[in-house]
Amino acid sequence: MEGTFDATALYPLPFTRSQNLLDRNIYYERSKPQYEQVPASYFISAKANGAYGDASHDDTQALNTLFQYAAAKGLIAYLDAGYYMVSNTVHIPPNARIVGEALASIIMGTGPNFGDVSKPRPVVQVGLPGDVGQIEWSDTIVSTRGPTAGAILIQYNLFAPETPSGMWDVHTRIGGFAGTYLQVPDCPAIKGTNTVNPRCLAAYMSFHVTAFAGGLFTENCWFWVADHDLEDQKYQRVSIFAGRGVLVEAQRGRIWLSASGSEHHVLYQYQLSNTRDVYIGHAQTEQAYFQPMPVAQYPFPLAPALNDPNFQQDCQNDPDPGCNMGWGMRILNSSNVAVILPSENFEHSGHESWNEVSRIDYSGHPDHGASRWDGFGSG
After folding, report:
1. Which parts of the sequence belong to the Rhamnogalacturonase A/B/Epimerase-like pectate lyase domain (predicted)?
2. Taking phi first (over 0 means left), then psi (-120 to 50 degrees means alpha), and beta for anything else, what does residue 68 get?
3. What H or E segment, with its residue span, contains residue 248?
4. Torsion from C-alpha of 161, 167, 173, 174, nearest 10 degrees
5. Which helix (H) or strand (E) holds 311?
6. 44-314+325-375: CATH class
7. Beta bridge partners of 201
8. Taking the model in full, what pTM does it have?
9. What are phi and psi of 138, to 5 degrees?
């Protein structure tokens, strides 16, 4: 790949930074709020207001009531440490402020409402399509329990026309820890077979920034599908299937994914489609360890409405097994995209490229401007 490489980056094309992504001529950033100046009376505890957080009771209604009330009254919803089991979507309304306790606050979707891959449903939904406003959300994990092939862990719809919303240390963690029913005894590592245990179909997508959304800053948000069991003394591998990683479709853009990671999803780790003004900084990707067996086109059916990669079509005449492995990053028909890459090995021509860490594809449109690729190698 041709371009200018200096001590920090490879610049394949002249690139003017989008003013929509800048603050005082540098890329926008905002530190996680600590709320140290907020009186204790402004915090409202989940467990003191009807939620159990005990990995057993259904906390769907309690969390919905809490978030709605806190947003309406200008309070901060405090998720005490615990497993908040939810059987249906939890809604975060505009103007909500939510903080967890030391990354020990887990919202866990489970049950038949999340089980149909043909009818995907968010576990947590931020705003409804058309909503305008801002949120602050930090120190929370969103997860699933058991087979939830239709679960979209976080769906983000909110549009913030001025100061962006913020998400800090909000992670999706799928399987590989106690209480998920997605550990070594449930989903042992696949070895040399295309057979998939349906009980290990654990998510449809981790994070969807929809076409309605815009104005969102995220920092240190990690979207992880377990490749090993964190509770196992031997740290054994597991084979857990989640269809898609991070999908950004925000037509009005102003999306910052800073210090981000997306790992072990089947089809791709990041996909930007029909969006604009997006910054992805210091991202990390890893493919699913079991690929290319099963191949990336299996077991999740193609969803053309989401511009899914069509591996069956693209790889039918390609004998290289690397073709049928999930993408690290795909950028489709998008403009003003600034990316700091996770790997030195990438291709910017729109042709397929892969390596054992990541596959990168930029299918630009001639009148959609350019993307900037800053390559920082990772071992």
Report:
1. 43-114
2. alpha
3. strand 241-248
4. -10
5. helix 311-314
6. mainly beta
7. 241
8. 0.90
9. -145, 160
